[in-house]
Amino acid sequence: MEGITEIGVGACRYMLFYKVGIKQQQEVFFSFINDFSQKTWIYFLHEKSKAFTMFRRYKACVEKETGAYRKCLRTDRGGEFSSNEFGEFCKANGITRQLTTTYTPQQNEVAERKNRTVMNLVRCMLTNKQVPKAFWLEAVRSYVHVLNRSPTLAI
Predict the structure, then answer these.
(1) Cα dihedral 6, 12, 13, 14 in deg (nearest 10)
(2) Minimum mean pLDDT among 5-14, 122-131, 138-147: which range?
(3) Is residue 155 part of a domain?
(4) Do 4 and 70 form a contact (C-beta atoms < 8 A)?
(5) What percent of the chain has pLDDT over 70?
(6) In the chain, which residue ranges form alpha helices assigned H by DSSP?
(7) Residue 154 domain flag
(8) Could you read off the pLDDT of 134-153 as tens digits, one per residue?
(9) Is residue 66 part of a domain?
């Protein structure tokens, strides 16, 4: 079975804080981008520490959906994918890891640019329609859904 050669991973660095009632919520999203097709998978988390569990879910879902195995994973050295447990999981599943140099987003350019583009468009959507920030998750989900289904990468 053929594998997808490169998957870039980016954790959204724009953690938005918003109030729901009295409680303040914090959300972060991880984007997995296929470097060849530019298809994006988005996963939302309350804490970055749950990234390994989320990656296992992503891997199972995408391999079932596409029938292709992940071969290479490019991440930054943010810590969320640096555990020994994650390294062992990648070795056991034949996934090569490419860790970028610290403070060089240029090495993971596809994921970094995608996250920046997503957040810029989401801010525009929420501001133009005067929607509360509490709906930013739905706006991100909607944008990525439309982006994955567009026949061209330039939207």
Answers:
(1) 160
(2) 5-14
(3) no
(4) yes
(5) 81
(6) 51-66, 84-92, 109-128, 136-149
(7) no
(8) 788 889 999 999 989 988 65
(9) yes
Q: What is the CATH number for 79? A: 3.30.420.10
Domain extent at residue 13? 3-149
Which residue carries 């918003």 as its tokens? 18
Tokens linked to 94: 């034949």
In a domain, 77, yes or no: yes
**Residue that the structure tokens 């390294």 belong to:** 87
pLDDT per position as a tens digit, 55-107: 999 889 888 888 888 888 888 887 888 889 999 999 999 888 888 887 777 77
Q: By three-state DSSP, how is residue 9 classified?
A: strand
Hey, is 108 helix, strand or coil? Answer: helix
The domain tally of the chain equals: 1
Helices and strands: H and E segment counts in the chain? 4, 8
Look up the pTM and report it. Answer: 0.80
Largest CA distance in the chain: 51
Q: What is the DSSP letter of 101?
A: P
